[in-house]
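Demo today. Your pick:
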Amino acid sequence: MHKTAKFTLIIIGILLFMNGVLNIIDDAVVLTYDIASILSGIGFIIVGLSMKE
């Protein structure tokens, strides 16, 4: 169960991070929700990696 939760958190983090970065590349404009998406993605990745098995 813990491996599934850890894997899911890391995947969600990667997708949020990619969403923010790719949206900035697509629009060539940095918006607030892009920054929020990137930071929340980094947070999900950190939480996923820090979970003990």
Notes: Residues 15 and 41 are 7 Å apart (CA to CA). Helices lie at 2-27, 32-50. The mean pLDDT is 91.
